[in-house]
Design brief:
alpha+beta; Fumarylacetoacetate hydrolase, domain 2; four-stranded antiparallel beta sheet
Length: about 200
Protein backbone atom coordinates (compact mmCIF):
# COMPACT_ATOMS: atom_id res chain seq x y z
CA UNK A 1 0.00 0.00 0.00
CA UNK A 2 1.00 3.60 -0.41
CA UNK A 3 0.02 6.87 1.24
CA UNK A 4 -0.66 9.66 -1.22
CA UNK A 5 -0.74 13.15 0.29
CA UNK A 6 -2.22 16.29 -1.22
CA UNK A 7 -0.67 19.68 -0.59
CA UNK A 8 -2.34 23.08 -0.79
CA UNK A 9 -5.96 21.96 -1.06
CA UNK A 10 -7.41 24.68 1.21
CA UNK A 11 -7.16 28.38 0.34
CA UNK A 12 -6.67 29.61 3.91
CA UNK A 13 -3.81 27.17 4.50
CA UNK A 14 -2.13 28.36 1.29
CA UNK A 15 -2.38 31.93 2.59
CA UNK A 16 -1.06 31.15 6.09
CA UNK A 17 2.12 29.59 4.67
CA UNK A 18 2.42 32.31 2.00
CA UNK A 19 2.37 29.76 -0.81
CA UNK A 20 1.00 30.12 -4.32
CA UNK A 21 -2.23 28.40 -5.35
CA UNK A 22 -1.46 25.43 -7.61
CA UNK A 23 -3.21 24.75 -10.90
CA UNK A 24 -3.37 21.03 -10.14
CA UNK A 25 -3.03 19.06 -6.88
CA UNK A 26 0.44 18.89 -5.34
CA UNK A 27 1.18 15.25 -4.55
CA UNK A 28 3.79 13.51 -2.43
CA UNK A 29 4.10 10.03 -0.92
CA UNK A 30 4.67 8.62 2.53
CA UNK A 31 5.94 5.03 3.04
CA UNK A 32 4.13 2.47 5.19
CA UNK A 33 6.76 3.07 7.90
CA UNK A 34 5.24 6.52 8.41
CA UNK A 35 2.00 5.08 9.81
CA UNK A 36 1.16 5.87 13.43
CA UNK A 37 -1.96 4.00 14.50
CA UNK A 38 -4.69 5.49 16.64
CA UNK A 39 -3.83 5.79 20.36
CA UNK A 40 -0.10 5.19 19.84
CA UNK A 41 2.24 7.95 21.11
CA UNK A 42 4.21 10.14 18.73
CA UNK A 43 7.89 10.57 19.61
CA UNK A 44 9.48 13.84 18.53
CA UNK A 45 12.34 13.13 16.10
CA UNK A 46 15.78 14.50 16.88
CA UNK A 47 16.42 15.97 13.42
CA UNK A 48 13.86 18.78 13.71
CA UNK A 49 13.21 21.63 16.12
CA UNK A 50 9.73 22.38 14.75
CA UNK A 51 7.29 19.55 14.10
CA UNK A 52 3.87 20.86 13.08
CA UNK A 53 0.45 19.19 12.99
CA UNK A 54 -1.69 19.14 9.84
CA UNK A 55 -5.09 17.47 10.37
CA UNK A 56 -6.64 15.89 7.27
CA UNK A 57 -9.58 13.83 6.04
CA UNK A 58 -8.43 10.41 4.82
CA UNK A 59 -9.85 8.08 2.18
CA UNK A 60 -9.08 4.35 1.79
CA UNK A 61 -9.14 2.90 -1.73
CA UNK A 62 -11.05 -0.39 -2.08
CA UNK A 63 -10.26 -1.47 -5.66
CA UNK A 64 -7.64 -1.01 -8.34
CA UNK A 65 -8.08 1.97 -10.64
CA UNK A 66 -6.24 4.03 -13.24
CA UNK A 67 -7.44 7.15 -15.09
CA UNK A 68 -10.67 7.19 -13.08
CA UNK A 69 -13.31 9.69 -14.17
CA UNK A 70 -14.53 11.69 -11.17
CA UNK A 71 -18.13 10.67 -11.86
CA UNK A 72 -17.09 7.07 -11.09
CA UNK A 73 -14.64 7.89 -8.28
CA UNK A 74 -17.20 7.22 -5.53
CA UNK A 75 -17.10 3.52 -6.45
CA UNK A 76 -13.45 3.27 -5.41
CA UNK A 77 -13.81 3.96 -1.68
CA UNK A 78 -16.18 3.11 1.16
CA UNK A 79 -14.26 4.35 4.22
CA UNK A 80 -13.32 7.75 5.59
CA UNK A 81 -11.02 8.64 8.47
CA UNK A 82 -9.05 11.52 9.94
CA UNK A 83 -5.33 11.79 10.54
CA UNK A 84 -2.33 14.04 10.95
CA UNK A 85 0.41 14.74 8.45
CA UNK A 86 3.26 15.62 10.82
CA UNK A 87 5.69 17.98 9.12
CA UNK A 88 9.23 18.96 10.06
CA UNK A 89 8.60 22.56 9.06
CA UNK A 90 12.12 23.83 9.64
CA UNK A 91 13.56 21.07 7.50
CA UNK A 92 10.90 21.50 4.84
CA UNK A 93 11.70 25.20 4.49
CA UNK A 94 15.40 24.45 4.06
CA UNK A 95 14.68 21.83 1.41
CA UNK A 96 12.23 24.07 -0.46
CA UNK A 97 14.70 26.95 -0.48
CA UNK A 98 17.19 24.71 -2.28
CA UNK A 99 14.62 23.27 -4.67
CA UNK A 100 14.99 19.81 -3.12
CA UNK A 101 12.30 17.14 -2.48
CA UNK A 102 10.28 17.25 0.75
CA UNK A 103 10.49 13.60 1.80
CA UNK A 104 12.84 14.14 4.75
CA UNK A 105 10.33 16.62 6.19
CA UNK A 106 7.16 14.71 5.37
CA UNK A 107 7.81 10.97 5.08
CA UNK A 108 9.78 10.18 8.22
CA UNK A 109 8.84 7.33 10.57
CA UNK A 110 5.42 7.70 12.26
CA UNK A 111 4.65 11.01 10.51
CA UNK A 112 1.18 9.83 9.44
CA UNK A 113 -1.43 9.46 12.17
CA UNK A 114 -4.32 7.30 10.96
CA UNK A 115 -7.53 7.23 12.96
CA UNK A 116 -10.34 4.68 12.97
CA UNK A 117 -12.12 4.05 9.69
CA UNK A 118 -15.81 4.92 9.30
CA UNK A 119 -18.10 3.85 6.47
CA UNK A 120 -18.88 6.81 4.25
CA UNK A 121 -22.53 5.74 4.38
CA UNK A 122 -22.39 6.83 8.03
CA UNK A 123 -22.20 10.43 6.81
CA UNK A 124 -25.01 12.35 5.13
CA UNK A 125 -22.67 14.09 2.68
CA UNK A 126 -18.90 13.58 2.54
CA UNK A 127 -18.56 16.94 0.79
CA UNK A 128 -19.98 18.63 3.90
CA UNK A 129 -17.91 16.99 6.67
CA UNK A 130 -16.81 19.18 9.55
CA UNK A 131 -13.61 18.13 11.28
CA UNK A 132 -11.28 19.52 13.89
CA UNK A 133 -8.09 18.93 15.84
CA UNK A 134 -7.87 19.58 19.57
CA UNK A 135 -4.53 20.15 21.26
CA UNK A 136 -4.79 19.82 25.03
CA UNK A 137 -8.60 20.18 24.75
CA UNK A 138 -8.37 23.42 22.74
CA UNK A 139 -9.46 23.46 19.08
CA UNK A 140 -6.44 24.47 16.99
CA UNK A 141 -7.59 23.42 13.52
CA UNK A 142 -11.04 23.11 12.03
CA UNK A 143 -12.36 22.74 8.55
CA UNK A 144 -15.08 21.44 6.28
CA UNK A 145 -14.64 19.33 3.18
CA UNK A 146 -16.70 21.91 1.29
CA UNK A 147 -13.63 24.18 1.56
CA UNK A 148 -11.45 21.85 -0.52
CA UNK A 149 -10.16 23.21 -3.82
CA UNK A 150 -10.41 19.67 -5.21
CA UNK A 151 -13.02 17.48 -3.50
CA UNK A 152 -12.46 13.79 -2.82
CA UNK A 153 -13.80 12.50 -6.14
CA UNK A 154 -11.86 15.12 -8.10
CA UNK A 155 -8.69 14.19 -6.21
CA UNK A 156 -9.14 10.53 -7.10
CA UNK A 157 -9.51 11.50 -10.75
CA UNK A 158 -6.34 13.62 -10.67
CA UNK A 159 -4.27 11.19 -8.60
CA UNK A 160 -5.20 8.19 -10.75
CA UNK A 161 -3.78 9.96 -13.80
CA UNK A 162 -0.36 9.75 -12.15
CA UNK A 163 -0.50 6.70 -9.86
CA UNK A 164 -2.40 3.45 -10.24
CA UNK A 165 -4.57 3.23 -7.14
CA UNK A 166 -4.54 -0.13 -5.37
CA UNK A 167 -6.59 -1.76 -2.63
CA UNK A 168 -5.59 -0.32 0.75
CA UNK A 169 -3.99 2.85 -0.59
CA UNK A 170 -4.71 5.89 1.61
CA UNK A 171 -5.21 9.45 0.43
CA UNK A 172 -4.48 12.37 2.77
CA UNK A 173 -6.68 15.08 1.24
CA UNK A 174 -4.97 18.23 2.53
CA UNK A 175 -5.14 20.39 5.64
CA UNK A 176 -7.07 23.56 6.50
CA UNK A 177 -5.49 26.58 8.17
CA UNK A 178 -4.32 26.53 11.77
CA UNK A 179 -1.23 24.33 11.52
CA UNK A 180 1.09 24.71 14.47
CA UNK A 181 3.98 23.33 16.47
CA UNK A 182 3.77 20.49 18.96
CA UNK A 183 5.79 19.76 22.09
CA UNK A 184 6.28 16.95 24.57
CA UNK A 185 3.14 16.01 26.55
CA UNK A 186 0.75 17.61 24.06
CA UNK A 187 -2.43 15.56 23.61
CA UNK A 188 -3.85 15.62 20.09
CA UNK A 189 -7.40 14.47 19.32
CA UNK A 190 -9.19 14.49 15.98
CA UNK A 191 -12.95 14.64 15.38
CA UNK A 192 -15.29 14.31 12.39
CA UNK A 193 -18.71 15.80 13.05
CA UNK A 194 -17.86 15.72 16.80
CA UNK A 195 -17.08 11.98 16.75
CA UNK A 196 -13.59 11.22 18.03
CA UNK A 197 -11.54 9.50 15.34
CA UNK A 198 -8.01 9.50 16.78
CA UNK A 199 -5.93 10.40 19.80
CA UNK A 200 -2.17 10.58 20.29
CA UNK A 201 0.18 12.01 22.88
CA UNK A 202 3.52 13.61 22.06
CA UNK A 203 6.50 12.07 23.80
Amino acid sequence: MKIICVGRNYDEHIKELKNTKPKSPILFLKPDTSILKNDQPFFLPRFSQNIEHEVEILVKIKKIGKNIDKKFAHKYYDEISLGIDFTARDLQQKLKSKGLPWEKAKAFDFSAVIGKWVLKSHFFNINELTFKLKKNDIVVQKGNTNQMIWNIDHLIEEISKIFTLKIGDIIFTGTPSGVGSIKINDKLEGFINNEKIFSTTVK
